[in-house]
Amino acid sequence: MTKLLLRALAGETLPVPPIWMMRQAGRYLPEYRATRAQAGDFLSLCYTPDLAAEVTLQPIRRFGFDAAILFADILLVPQALGADLWFVTGEGPRLSTVTTPGDLARLRPADQIHDRLAPVYETVRILARELPPETALIGFAGAPWTVATYMIAGRGTPDQAPAHALKNADRATFSALIDRITEATILYLSAQIEAGAETVKLFDSWAGSLRGADFDDFALAPARRIINALKARHPDVPIIAFPREAGDRYAGFARATGADCVALDSSVSAEWAAWHVQTDGCVQGNLDPRHMVTGGPELTAEAQRITRAFRGGPHIFNLGHGITPDADPDNVAAMIEAVRTA
Ligand code: CP3
Predict the structure, then answer these.
(1) What is the SS3 assignment for 323?
(2) What family is reported (predicted)?
(3) Model-level pTM?
């Protein structure tokens, strides 16, 4: 009996969709906060395989989700390429910046990332052993554009202005950075698959700030290159792409990149996406994560509306973005109940 998540990714229409949540291992869970305190800080948690595996398993034990997502971060790849990385409590990530040909020359070649990332592969191996047999294991990486926005600005930015500025002022350096991240991502995801990841997800959280030809060149093209390379090595491993806030560019994204599933944020309606995205294959999403804070009858109604809108094709139930630290775990249980009884 194949795992439900893998059946949906293979294109099967199921009576009840498989369910998991972005950031399901996170600060809204008291058991996560306890393990994170034990690790000391967020990066130590990412690089300590026993503890990273433990926080990955916590939401599976509590809620019985159909999939576990490896606990790590998209910014471990820049760090493995040689960027300095640290997290400022309450503010988010900080990195040494890459904005000149000299900065780029100081980064490591893509094939030298594995020493630094070996603990992540060990976390995947532990999870492949310890997950319940019905739970699928998802690996992931950031998409090149999103990772580049952090490497160029040295931090998260509301509008990705520094990355857009470099793209427009020094296209050669910008493109070379995108290429380096693309190559590293192929090797990183391949290693996760070899360690036991059953599917991988590419997070392009800032895809929505790319317009027109920029979307083609820096969201579509790198995703297509990564997916082609992974399919050549691991033809049976399905791939989920998340070009967040892509809007109408969600339509055709799976065909253009070869992704098996497109993850949707909450800005597109499930009714629209059923007609314009799900017609090409599996979709994932897209409940607004705010419902995990507010709960009540609106949560149930929205979760059931989305489940019904996607009922005619392959669907994985998820949020449109990560669950937030102020969410109530009881609302997660209510969401699962609503989806399974829709
Ligand atoms: O989804 C999961 O449960 C898997 C683990 C995961 C994390 N980050 C753990 C994390 C995944 C898939 C990510 C992806 C990620 N990381 C993205 C893309 C997805 C998205 O959310 O748009 C991005 C942009 C990052 C970079 C990043 N990591 C930021 C901007 C922050 C700080 C913001 C915040 O929420 O504090 C992080 C930290 C981070 N990554 C946390 C977790 C659980 C919180 C850290 C903590 O415990 O203090």
Answers:
(1) coil
(2) Belongs to the uroporphyrinogen decarboxylase family.
(3) 0.97
